[in-house]
Design goal:
- By secondary structure, the chain is α/β, with parallel strands linked by helices.
- It folds into two domains: 10-250, Aspartate Aminotransferase, domain 2 (3-Layer(aba) Sandwich); 253-372, Aspartate Aminotransferase, domain 1.
- The chain is 39% helix and 14% strand.
- The longest helix has 22 residues, at 10-31.
- It is globular and about 70 Å long.
- The two termini are 24 Å apart.
- Bound molecules: pyridoxal-5'-phosphate.
Amino acid sequence: MKYKVRFVNPQKQYKDHKKEFLKTIDDVFSRGDLISRGDLENFEKKIAKFVGVKYAIGVNSGTDALTLSMQAAGINRGDEVITVGHTFMASISSIYHQGAKAVLVDVGKDFNMNSDLIEKAITSKTVAIEPVHLNGRVCDMDKIIAIAEKNNLSIIEDAAQALGAKYKTKEGKWKMAGSFGLAGCFSMYPFKMLGGFGDAGMVVTNNSEIAKKIKLLRFNGESREDRKFYYHGYTALLDNVQAALLNVKFKYFKQWITRRRQIANIYRNNLKDLLNIELPYYGDSRFFDVYQNYVIRAERRNELVKYLNKRGVEVLISWDTPNYKQPVMCPNKIFLCETEKICKEVISLPMYPELNNTEVTYVANCIIDFYKK
Ligand SMILES: Cc1ncc(COP(=O)(O)O)c(C=O)c1O
């Protein structure tokens, strides 16, 4: 099917910056700088400064960022980590990779961890909370930090979808997603906020021990200084050429965030009076959302998806099945009310900086037309 508005359009971004990308690849390949070179260090420094933390460590995916962070934080067999049922499976798998158990709590209307449910989920085995900043919106971190401090729990943030998202703390200070916990984990999968030309990820932290351990773990546990192996690690280093290309993209990153927020405004202005759908939360001045995804909740969701496809609009459903009903998680007795409802109602609309206003308005008008029928 030929779509009028694609859900993602990496070709457009490539076309816009083709010369710079090709020049960068040629430069890196001509230098022979393939593994752990200056472009990676340079990129890590930029991300650390941007997020406002001391260390950033490039790894080869968001999943590795989470898994290595869990391991570096000492999450172990028999431990429990509290996270949400409504997330990408990697948030949960990274806990199980340690032999620990993921205890899933429900999300609120903003799709993020419902902090009122955390304390009830704490047991004597709980060692950490993993908030997931979904769709480019930070969780209500004041409450989560207070609970973690009271119960002596670590926080490992799944910020895979939230590079650039901010939250104003009760002290009135704006802080970036990823900078609240012991470690913050980003995905740089091609369609994320800042996406590579393949899989990529980053851990950020203010803790020198965690940073050191992750640097070893991503290199099969081997220290580059004394060539000794300190851990059973992984081949999980962010490629130098990916880092070099991400350095190019980073020049435009703030501009791209602004554009995503403009697109969200266009959707909102066109759709706010439509009673059949719910738009992403808006208006709480503590949140600076970056709209990794623009997710609406819709009546007759599946019919709407078919209608949009017919009108040439490509959309995505993330996700139509709660994680705890996936084969890997069954059997279990979990039932999370909001998560169940969300799975029946959500649609992600096209959202990326290269969309033009006509395309965004077209998508909104198609939704309005559907409910007028
Ligand atoms: C919330 C969340 N966590 C973790 C990940 C894993 O990131 P990656 O695909 O880079 O491994 C993703 C990516 O889809 C995600 O959306």
